[in-house]
Design a protein that fits this description.
- The chain is α+β, with helices and mostly antiparallel strands and 361 residues long.
- It folds into 2 domains: 2-205, ATPase, nucleotide binding domain (Nucleotidyltransferase, domain 5); 261-338, no CATH class.
- The protein is built from 9 helices and 16 strands.
- The chain has helices at residues 86-95, 127-150, 152-158, 174-186, 195-198, 204-214, 261-268, 280-292, 330-354; strands at residues 2-3, 19-26, 30-38, 47-48, 64-65, 67-70, 76-79, 98-101, 162-168, 199-203, 225-230, 235-242, 248-257, 305-308, 321-322, 325-328.
- Strands 2, 3, 4, 5, 9 and 10 form a 6-stranded mixed sheet that branches.
- A hairpin with a 3-residue loop joins strand 2 (19-26) and strand 3 (30-38).
- This is Actin-like ATPase domain-containing protein.
Length: 361
């Protein structure tokens, strides 16, 4: 596979009319969107969407939780950060709403084995339905963001001419791409007739390579590199080499392993099952908050980590929950990372041994 030499010195857009490209990175636990307005003769600039409803820090984050909340009739009631607001969580509990997370894993190919159990979908929802609901929400947020950042006139000028890019794990195949394309149609992003021309796909490995190039990370010719994309549900590994002509080629088959960051945390929360915080929904929430916030505070095994997920009234000392936060000993948190680290190291060793070009360290 040959990749274009997409150097930091991008060329001006050579199209004849203005268009918009929107890229969606829908992850197991978090998702983000970026876009570029292409004007004829101008060098395109990629911009992230950094403002979503209910974000604690508006403009400070380019991602939201990959969650969708439905009422009993199956209607979407909240998505992303909106579903994690304390007032909404209380309403959801009172009215019996169902929060769906990790839905992306339901689309994976059967060949991709995961080392952990993950929540089932509601009986009245398919993976395609949830994926399309989430995609529709991201598109509406992007539309609103572009209108505020660039003006309604700019949006109106590009609305008839939008291309969409969907990133997916390395291990996903044509069948998964077909489902994602169908989700874009159901979400109203494109018509079925236009979907083949306007919906495009990129593996997360290729996207990571281009990110490295744009950030001017030194890449030597004839020396292979391995890119490890350690996500929430899966870990993707890709190996490339820059040729004498300046393009990039894959030097070993890409890998996708089911040892993402949520796996060990979920397994370790088994102790909550006998407490009033042991429901599937509570465990998902705690795992997601740990992944987004608490894990970044971990430094050494001697220090405890606190996962704040509830209110002051939420407590169960038998499982170290007080004032709405779960206390985790540092030595336990340390074990969360161990399975993923071991799996990644083993996968890197295998990539190096199988590569057709020498890969440096």
């Amino acid at each position: 596979m040959q990749l274009p030499n997409n150097t930091p010195n991008r060329k001006p857009y050579d199209g004849s009319v203005r268009k918009l490209v929107i890229a969606f990175d829908i992850g197991t636990t978090f998702s983000g969107v970026s876009y570029a307005i292409l004007d004829p003769g101008e060098v395109p600039e990629t911009q992230p969407v950094t403002s979503f409803p209910a974000q604690a820090k508006v403009g400070g984050s380019a991602k939201i939780p990959s969650i969708v909340c439905y009422d009993k009739e199956g209607k979407v009631r909240a998505v992303g950060s909106e579903a994690e607001e304390p007032a909404f969580i209380e309403q959801a509990e009172d009215e019996g709403f169902v929060t769906v997370s990790w839905f992306k894993l339901h689309l994976r190919p059967e060949s991709l084995k995961l080392e952990f159990d993950f929540p089932a979908l509601p009986k009245n929802k398919t993976p395609l339905m949830v994926f399309s609901d989430f995609l529709r929400y991201l598109f509406e947020c992007t539309k609103s963001y572009i209108q505020k950042a660039n003006g309604t006139l700019v949006w109106n000028s590009v609305q008839p001419n939008i291309d969409f890019i969907l990133a997916h794990p390395n291990g996903w195949e044509i069948a998964q791409q077909a489902q994602m394309r169908r989700a874009a149609i159901i979400a109203g992003l494109v018509s079925e007739a236009e979907s083949q021309e306007r919906v495009h796909f990129v593996t997360e490995g290729e996207a990571s390579l281009h990110f490295c190039i744009q950030r001017k990370i030194p890449l030597e010719k004839d020396i292979g590199i391995i890119i490890v994309d350690a996500g929430g549900g899966t870990v993707d590994l890709s190996a490339y080499c820059q040729t004498a002509m300046g393009s990039f080629e894959e030097i070993v088959t890409s890998r996708c392993i089911g040892q993402g960051s949520v796996s060990s945390m979920t397994i370790s929360l088994e102790k909550l099952k006998n407490s009033r915080f042991g429901s599937e929904q509570d465990v998902q929430l705690i795992a997601s908050i740990f992944d987004a916030e608490a894990k970044h505070t971990f430094r050494k095994s001697e220090d405890s980590v606190y996962v704040k997920f509830g209110t002051f009234r939420d407590r169960d000392p038998s499982v170290d929950i007080k004032s709405g936060q779960l206390k985790l000993p540092g030595c336990v948190v340390e074990t969360f990372f161990e399975p993923s680290i071991k799996a990644i190291i083993q996968a890197v060793k295998e990539q190096r041994s199988e590569a057709t070009t020498s890969i440096g360290v």
